Amino acid sequence: MNNLIQIPCEKCGSTTVMRSEGSTQGLYCTKCDWSVVTTHIPEILLDTKVYEIRLTGGDCRNEEHVKTVAHLSGVNFLAARKLLQQDSPLIYSGLASKIVEIHKTLNSVNLKHQINPEFIW
């Protein structure tokens, strides 16, 4: 069963479709040039808290771990290896939208980490 509401085009009566790209969303006619659009900013982009990601595990002998930490924290290979030797090193501090990306990357290489404050995204 389709739960979408069918709204006819105000200009020609044809079918309209809902589209969302970036921060713009709206209804667009499938036949003519009629449309109605609005701004939609995802909730995560409105979150102004500064979050920190700290490693809680990792292997300084694991090349994949070292390269990932180097890339994410903006340091060279040797500095990343030293970070992995520390207790709970800070990898990144910033806004939620970037933290989500880093969280996914760390998970993809099985690097254990903690995000503070509590991260709901």
What does this structure look like?
This protein is of the alpha+beta class and 121 residues long. The protein folds into two domains: 1-40, no CATH class; 45-116, Ribosomal protein L7/L12, C-terminal domain/Adaptor protein ClpS (Ribosomal Protein L30, Chain: A, 2-Layer Sandwich), CATH 3.30.1390. Helix content is 31%, strand content 26%. It is built from four helices and six strands; from the N terminus they run βββαβααβαβ. It has helices at 43-46, 63-73, 77-85, 96-108, and strands spanning 16-21, 24-29, 35-39, 51-55, 90-94, 113-116. The strands form two sheets. A three-stranded antiparallel sheet has the order 1-2-3, with no helix packed on it. Strands 5-4-6 form a three-stranded antiparallel sheet. A hairpin with a 2-residue loop joins β1 and β2. It starts with 15 loop residues before the first strand and ends in a 5-residue tail after the last strand. 17% of the residues are buried.
